[in-house]
Amino acid sequence: MSATLQPAVAIRPADTILGAQPGRFVPEAAVPTRASMFGPRGCWAQPGGPLVVADTGNHRVLIWRELPEEDGTPPDLVLGQPGFASDARNRGGPVSARSMFVPTGVLVWRGRLLVADAWNHRVLIWRELPRASDVPADLALGQASLGAGELNRGGRPRADTLYWPYGLATDGQRLYVADSNNRRVLVWSALPDEPGRPADLVLGQADFAGGEENAGGAPTAASMRWPHGLASDGRRLLLADAGNNRVLIWDRLPVEPNAPADRALGQPDFVAVSDNRGYRLGAATLRFPYGAALWGGQIVVADTGNSRLLLWATPTPATGAAPDKVFGQADFDQSGENRWKLAGRDTLCWPYGIGAVGGVLAVADSGNNRVLLWHGEEPADE
Is 291 a domain residue? Predict the structure, then answer.
């Protein structure tokens, strides 16, 4: 229990667990299987399905056609590998339309599948959600062709280059990509349908040529150090700025280059960026937050380094506000991986990506090699 707050009201244990099951936290075999995962870092789900998971350590994407409700349900399809038993980066060969190297963010939008293929420095796009395994991507952003994989295309940052893209999101009209090691978010004004199409807007840097931490200066409301997870409900934008140990919130969708955020969670202001506010763990602190989502009117943040989810009951909390709920820990003053015990339905170990669509919440519980699912919005406290 926190010394300054009322006891946290934790959300219920996960409804469904995919990948490693409770009581386990490492892969059961040296090679991947259809039902296993290794360090998943991204997930996307909606009621009824599909569910898409970036099985990052196995360099593949797994797809369930229908949203699974039973623990351990195996996926229907695999992309990035020739089959479920393969895990080589880029399939053990050159970069191609079928290969992946550390896939992270995933997104289904207007019937299309997008995958942030981070270490190939590109975003892969399928013009329709694949119906079979090992289907090649149709085009890529960040590279001139599907056979290329150099960071920033071998040069400096531009509107058409990427350097470790991780998070993906849409506001219904525009595409947002967290271009993590260029310390920026790129925005396309519409769903791209041309290979290598340049972005239309940049956040986090003064222009498309910038790529320094916090834009080469002190932290501000407009700067970023390690942008990762993104979320939007069509009205506002959230960014998990992991390197600055904060989540930035734009109350209105940014339309100007380098637009500053309106609020920050995890820090008392836009200048402070220290881990757990100076290594003092509490309700309002963050340590390397990698994911953020809007779930039933709540903000959910993957406080990755503290192995917990934090929930704010309002989508517009004040800067530095403490959350209302915690999941993964007994209270706001704990941060142990799996609470220093075997993984359970109510524990976490380094959660990364979060997806929330239509009441479904999906969390990539990376350190436990699994994905947790909640099938309906969390009811308000009575």
Answer: yes
DSSP character at residue 277 = H
Burial of 313 (0-12, 13-18, 19+ CB in 10 A): middle
Tokens representing 94 are: 């050159």
Residue 379 lies in a domain: no
Half-sphere exposure of residue 379, counting CA atoms within 13 Å on the CB side?
3
Mean pLDDT of the chain: 94
Q: How many domains does the chain have?
A: 1
Looking at the domain assignment, is residue 244 inside a domain? yes
- What pTM value is reported for the model? 0.95
Q: Give the length of the chain.
A: 382
- Write the DSSP symbol of residue 268: S
* Bridge partners (DSSP) listed for residue 186: 177, 202
Q: CATH number, domain at 357?
A: 2.120.10.30
Give me the phi and psi of 180, to 5 degrees please: -60, -50
Domain that holds residue 144: 16-374
Q: 64 has which bridge partners?
A: 51
Contacts of 102 (CB under 8 A, 6+ apart): 56, 59, 89, 117, 118, 119, 120
pLDDT of 322-356, one tens digit each?
A: 999 999 999 999 999 999 999 999 999 999 999 99
pLDDT at 122 over 80: yes
Contact (Cβ atoms closer than 8 angstroms) between residue 61 and residue 80 = yes
Q: Which two tokens stand for residue 344?
A: 């359970």
Render pLDDT for 59-105 as a digit per residue (tens, 0 to 9). Answer: 999 999 999 999 999 999 999 999 999 999 999 999 999 999 999 99
Determine the 3-state secondary structure of 183 from DSSP.
coil
For residue 54, the surrounding DSSP H or E stretch is strand 51-55
Asked if residue 6 belongs to a domain, the reply is no
Which tokens is 42 given? Answer: 């991204």
Q: How far is Cα 92 from Cα 81, in angstroms, rounded to an integer? A: 10
